[in-house]
Specification:
The chain starts with a helix and ends with a strand. The strands form two sheets. Strands 5, 6, 7, 8, 9, 10, 11 and 12 form an eight-stranded mixed sheet that branches. The radius of gyration is 23 Å and the shape is globular. With 429 residues, it is of the alpha/beta class. It contains 17 helices and twelve strands. It has helices spanning 3-17, 21-29, 35-50, 52-62, 73-87, 92-101, 112-133, 137-140, 145-155, 159-166, 183-192, 231-239, 257-265, 278-291, 335-338, 343-359, 381-389; strands at 173-176, 197-199, 206-209, 226-228, 247-250, 270-275, 296-299, 314-320, 362-372, 394-397, 409-411, 421-428. It is 45% helix and 14% strand.
């Protein structure tokens, strides 16, 4: 199948069927043998989803009359074609020709002339039309209205910067396994191979690559010298304040990056890693095997403590709670279109119940680090405030970078190059 047809079908599946790219892309990639084609497909799909409202508005203004199926695959093929012309270095003639050829693969053979006309018309009119469209910065930044409203409430004048960060491709960040060597020595190794990387000012095990690359080309990756993990996620190991021999629970551990990081920092931990999804827990197992680390793994619901807890309290708990993922939209642009406003209260209730259940397994004097990759206060500070109001033995601890008058540490999407994240450290009295 034509790559543009694949892209249109994937965008359609996200926008109109509510399906996740995590589920869809692996199957499609199996049909594409050339790595460059797989990379181009990802670029077309991610870019079309990042800028979907802007491109769909432009498409509709370029049409002489509305499409018979305004929500169909042809509508998404036109979005993909416009994305190529406006955002990529694909030569315009190739972008137009290949998009026109794709109509057969999506069952729209009669639309060849229409697709050709719209894309060629865009080459003449896009600049003036977009100048008008972009007067509405919310439309320009291509987020659903409910999410824009929620982010405005949370970030005020910084909202546009948050939306822009969500639409910017994320950098590739590495976590150096300091059991195997220092950050400085691994940076020097990369430099010797002409791979540019900079030290991050906050996460002490992090390097940020100047250009993304295939992980298998990273020196020592297969042997566990380094892993790929966003800088914000790496802060969990700093914030949890672990020590030798501690008994630690990673309550929602998949895919295992934070689990591994804790063990890299302190191999003497007795660590239990839970996840409700057995297939995702397998990824934790594979990550630990590559890094030559060990932990006890259980595929269980962390909130159902009676089913798995042996009544031995934990010194430290990491609760990386299931959330909306609105802080990592730049890595998963389909999240913008998959999440609904009604999802947030249900997620917050699930998070609060998890927190309350796990609190009983924490030792007195122990600490629990609550984390989400959400940008929404309902899943973060507001939730922790509710928890503290009903839990007399819980005390909020101040984290590095956390204002003294705030509830937890908020990391805005794009801040210091990081994903959007939230952390709150709670001590049990």
């Amino acid at each position: 199948m034509n790559l543009r047809a694949h892209a249109a079908e994937l965008v359609y599946a996200v926008i109109h069927e509510g399906r996740s790219l995590n589920d869809l892309l692996p199957t499609v990639n199996q049909q594409i043998s050339d790595g460059r084609d797989r990379a181009l497909l990802k670029e077309l799909v991610f870019g079309s989803l990042r800028h979907h409202r802007r491109l769909a508005t432009l498409r509709d203004r370029l049409l002489s009359q509305p499409l018979q199926q305004p929500q169909g695959k042809l509508a998404q093929l036109l979005v993909v074609g416009l994305y190529q012309l406006l955002y990529t270095r694909v030569p315009a003639h190739a972008a137009v020709a290949d998009t026109v050829e794709a109509v057969s693969d999506i069952g729209e053979e009669r639309a060849r002339g229409l697709v050709n006309a719209v894309l060629r018309n865009s080459q003449r009119k896009a600049d003036s039309l977009l100048a008008d469209i972009d007067r509405n910065w919310e439309l320009k930044q291509s987020h659903p209205d409910w999410l824009v409203s929620a982010l405005k409430k949370a970030y005020g004048r910084d909202t546009e910067a948050v939306l822009a960060a969500n639409n910017s491709p994320a950098p590739m960040s590495l976590r150096v396994n300091t059991q195997r060597g220092s950050v400085a020595s691994y940076q020097a190794l990369l430099q010797s191979l002409d791979i540019a990387a900079t030290v991050h000012p906050e996460a002490r095990d992090a390097l940020v690559l100047a250009q993304p690359m295939d992980v298998q080309q990273l020196p020592g990756f297969a042997d566990g010298a380094v892993s790929v993990q966003d800088v914000a996620a790496q802060l969990a190991a700093d914030f949890l304040d672990i020590g030798p021999g501690m008994r630690v629970l990673d309550a929602c551990s998949a895919p295992g990056g934070k689990t591994a990081h804790l063990l890299e920092r302190e191999p003497t931990l007795t660590l239990l890693a839970l996840d409700s999804d057995a297939s995702r827990l397998q990824r934790v197992r594979e990550n630990l095997q590559r890094l030559q680390l060990s932990a006890e793994l259980k595929a269980v619901d962390a909130g159902a403590t009676a089913a798995w807890w042996d009544q031995q309290p934990f010194d430290r708990i990491l609760l990386d709670a299931p959330c909306s993922g609105t802080g990592v939209i730049r890595r998963h642009p389909d999240i913008k279109w998959l999440r609904r406003e009604r999802d947030i209260p249900a997620l917050a209730e699930q998070q609060l119940q998890l927190l309350r259940s796990l609190w009983s397994t924490l030792a007195h004097g122990g600490k629990l680090l609550y984390a989400t990759c959400s940008s929404l206060p309902a899943e973060n500070a507001e939730l922790i405030k509710t928890f503290l109001a009903g839990q007399n033995d819980a005390q909020l601890q101040l984290l590095p970078g956390q204002p003294a008058d705030s509830i937890g540490r908020v990391i805005r999407p794009g801040e210091a190059g990081m994903d959007g994240f939230y952390y709150a450290l709670l001590a049990k009295q």
